[in-house]
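pasting input
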Amino acid sequence: MGEFKVHRVRFFDYMPSGIRALAFNRDIERIAVARMDGSVEVFHCSDRFFQEKIIPGREQCGIEGLSWVGERLFSAGLNGGITEYDLTNQKVKYTVDAYGGPIWTIAGNQQGTHLAVGCEDGTVKLFEVNEDKIQFERNLDRQKSRIISLSWHPSGSKIAAGMMDMIQIFNVETGHSVHRLLADRGVGTSRSKECVVWSVVYLSDGTIISGDSVGMVKLWDDQTGTLIKSHNVTKCDVLALSVSQNEDSLVAGTSEGTVVQFQFISMVLGKDDKEWVRTRTFKNHTHDIRAVAEITTAVVSGGMDAQLVVRPLLDKVEVRSAASALRKIHFPHRRLVSCARKSGLMLFQYPGHLELWRLGESEGKGMPGSSLFVKRNPEKLLHLKVKGEDHIRCSAVSPCGEWIVYSTASSLRLYRLHCDNNNVSITKISKLPMVLSSANQLCFSSDSSHLFSASTQSSVHLVSLSQSGCKFVGTLKPKSGERTIGFGVLHIIEDGKWLASANSDHEVHIYNLQTRKAHCTVPVYSSAVTAMGIHPTTNCLFMMYADQQMCEYSIEQKQYTDWSRMVQRKGLHRFWMERDTPCLNVMFNPQHPSHVILHDTYMLCIIDQSLPLPDDKTQFYNQLTLKSLPEEQRKSHSHAFKVCKTFKDILCVELMSDQSLVVVERPLEDVASQLPAPIKQKKFAT
Amino acid sequence: MVETSDIRVVRCGGSKVNLTPPIISSDSRFVLCTSGDLVKVYSTRTEEWLHSLQGHTNQVTGITLNPANHLQVYSCSVDGTVKLWDFIDGILIKVQLVEVHETVEIFLSSGLCVSACPECFQLVSVHLPKSAEQEVEAKEMSAVSSHISKNPSCTAFGRGGEYIAFARHLQLNVYFFRKQKTYSFSLKATDKKGAKNAFTCIACHPTDDCIATGHEDGKIRLWRNFIHKKEYTYSTQHWHHNAVNTLCFTPEGTHLLSGGIESVLVQWQYGADNRKEFLPRLGGSILHISASSDGQLFCTSHSDNKITVIESSFKVCGVIQGLVKDAVLTDLMIDPRSKALVLNGKPGHLQFYSLLRDKHLYNLDIVQQEYIYEAGLDQFEVVKAAFDIKGSWLATVEERGKKSSDLEFFLKLWAFDERTQSFVLNTTITAAHTDRIISMCFSSSEETTMLVTAAEDSQFKAWCQGADADTQQDQNFWSCDFVGSYHKLNPTNCSFSADSSLLAVSFQEVITIWSPDTWEMLTTLCQPPGVIRDLCFGRLSCSKYLLGTTTKNLLCCWNLLTCELEWSTSVDVSKLQPDPFSENVAAFSYQSKHTDLFVFKPSEPRPLFTNKNVCSEKVHRAVFVPREEPLNSCDESTQWLNRSQLYFLTQNMDLLTFSTATEEDRMLSSSKQLVIDDSVAVTPFYLLLGKHRQQQQKLNTQSHPVSDKPQQTQGSVTIKELLHTPAHVLPAASVLCSMFVNSFLISNTGVQQDPLSWLT
């Protein structure tokens, strides 16, 4: 179904950063992930773990802990500060220094009134959470060694703090230590090494559970301060613990990459005397697990191997479906690559720099599936380092390849690219309009004459570009003017006349660029938009959602098209719905107006809107079958979905103007080979 | 044709002791195990066979202690009965006839017996009626499930008998008796990592609701919370590299024992699953584990027909070895000295097994190389062995290489050493022949021993013991004396006549008769068609006859005096076995899927005894075992069993024998006499001291023959009167007292004696 010349790009050395902390908010079903590079991401748990928000990190900002207080997200790190995030605008709201040296842990109480941080100097500091800021309240009794882990009793009256070689229980009222629980060191040579209590969990029945560097999960009684039971989970460290909402299940993440589940089970059926019993072991990681979270129906774990693993607990899942399958999230649900369609340039976005590459050229024609001779190798034109400490939030290259723009949390920079043969030079455009101070999303018009920048106020700024410089033209705002709280705009799709923007509140607005007015709003769907595109000839907006549904909306008629209604009526094929990564790009082939090109991490798909839709009985992946059939029978067997699984671990697919496809792959093996060596384990030993 | 009503086929001696889990009595003094038609009782301390519970008429398939009375044991058998025994005295208490099918396995809990039936493999709960009668028919039955594995280890009772857990393939079922409800849990056949999840065994924790299951890939899962359809949970442990054969919780539930093909007993600490202890190198793969009720002893039964008694400190304290019959390549032989049965034992060994005492005597290492327990390795095995008539020489052939291209074999000769009472290697002949040795026999004369080997290189060789000129030593080694062949034909068998004056060697269809003294071929006998398979001379009065069987279903008898065929009959004889103590010859014939036995004298073509349908498999190995004391049966049909007993080995390695009615009567009566004083274990010390004590007692009774007898009767009458009268009709204690004391007084008739000293 259509033949393309494909540029198979594997020189984008994107390296996802390791996961350091997880925090789950039950009320809004969001899980926040802190990475080693200081970035914080928010995933929507009930919307197929779609990555809703990304707050880029900074240099030298190691986050050690994350905590939700209500719907507010706080983090603390080794730089000694407590940071609150502005989740609506996806940026840091403010940072407060705790003045206790590096902070190892942060924990909010269930009442949402206080935050406790554990500092290097041995103090547990209490902060009061106010409307707009947090306020230091007092210190608990200062200890001799650093505080590694903290856990509030659900009532908020006590705090358990894990330290070197011991656990302290504090009374929050008095600030004094109530009990001191001594954790045993390892035997033999590790006798001399301190036992680090990496994680503590305080249960409502007064049980304290600790995970330490000796590899033990220990259960303590807080009344008597005695050890109830200890489980030897691993030979290495137990780094993270998490307990379920109803306190009947506990997961422990180890540095061997295993997650061990404990369950609170009655030993004699039908009786009430329950015990914590080690039950299942999940091994989905290759490296240290730095954070685990038991959410309602699954165990989420993340670690040094930079993947977020969602392991469903089938005993808690009501209906088994694609939404409750094992999920491994490797790559961001954003595009990190932008292509200059007309000039064959690609812009790769790294956290701290940008790379501009020119695609190679090939010679001759080949059979489908064969590889062509490369006449000119791809060439790195530019390495652009970011000014300042902030990491890049978004970037874009204009279709003509003359303009490069990127934005960090604090600044936006626009460059003009001069390319004469082998000499590449850039000039920074100074004197940008005031509105272009920072952007959530950037996009050039298809004729490269305008730059669209999605601002923090749910509006899109329009800037015209010319040889001399840039000029602010106007702002596109949604019709509902009374809305004061803005939402980060996710996607801007421009098509000469129309511009569509989607925000994280699942709203999609369409603007008329000629009148610079809001044209209409697409009916709000429950799932987030992951990709969309406007068809160049029919002016239909094609949208892909996180739950793998698709919609086509006619802009001119302001209604869903007939094809879209047919899709909704007939439903999509089971195999399509079971894919576990969202579609990241929607493209249209000018030569075949009925074709829509989509891609996710594992496949490339062309939807032919002129062909019948498959139902659940038809063979979904039917290319091989079709090939074997004679020409005349193919028609009756073919259906709208043509899936190509030749490429794996796809970061980006783009259709260039010369009808060639660019496929940017990042093989997971390459990512794994760049990770540090995992803990060595004997495979066969007793 | 003679009626064979009073001779029946029994499994007696050399049976499998590893068929079912052994059980240890609650005082840890006895180990009970099934062995053929019997239940055998062994002492845990001395490993001695104490006695056996005899009464089943077919294979006993399960035993379990009576939960209500720990001195009693239930046993079930393929004959469809469940029997209750007092195992200390060996008394049959009760017989329950279970009507359904053949009971295969028995599991017991509080008056409820659950048995599995072989045809449909159903789990049936049988209510054992409470009745005083000795023979009861159990009629109250209810089927629990038909989803049950054929393997009895896949069924186990849970805590206090409240539920039963059973598994088949990939499904685990838990049936609660009170609720009458079954919960099922299934696993996927394989997962991405290629785990084989089929269940292989089950054990239930004695106090907690926890089920341990073993799996084909060596995993052990501990299931909990199994009254929930969804919220059930299990933890997985993995140590075994191959299927877990058996699991057993200790009675306190503090440990879980597991075993498999690795023959390593693994002890898992319950609750802290990564703490394990190992007891390696136990022999064959572990099939069953059982623990005594006080947790002091464990028993493992192994695939090499062995029960190991292990202390709770993981020290082996006893081995009960049965007859090893895994791969029998040699003939069944009788050691003329010890009268023990000799056949392949441990790999590379010959085992000596006393059938009379049903006891393994010792293993003789023939190959003298370390055996590597790994599939697919080509290792040396003993394939042929022969004793001379006095038992002072043993010849063995060991070979390696299934294909003849890389065939490697040794002929070894072993001399019996009187000093060490065992066989010592005398000569190893590395290239006795150029091809595989087919047959081997010693001359039967007392004076000179000679060995004849016939091989596929179309030669037979005679080996003699003689001083070798090259080695100037006193010891006499064996060397080749004569090489014979006949028209380049491959020999098939060889045999000496009873007086060793003639040697018969069969070459394909021709039998050649040689004189061993001159090595002159005397004559040839030929009765085509068919290659000669078996060859034997008649004995005693029939020594002038030579018997031969051919592959074309012909049994021929030649008269050696006339060199003519005396008689021949068309019968497919798979094994021809002469009795060394009589003229009788036993012939097993395989026809239409069952084996018949004919016993006849070579002199007359009429069989003495016929037994149709002895077993359903082909019989290739049989042996006459001499009796310790001959029976004196006059019945014509049982007369042939007077001096020796015929044992035979079926293709699936069952050792069967024939027993007569008179013999069984005698055994029953002897077992009743033999009530063991169970206060003392039968140790060698006991046998010494006990005899001494018995003698003393005898002396005592002789010295006071008069004084004891009336005294005891009188006393016992009074006491009996005292104890058996209901309390409310008894006179006052003061009245009784004098009567009671009087009863202990010794009447003046005997020898002068202090009554008090007698009392103390």
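fyi The first helix of chain B runs from residue 661 to 673.
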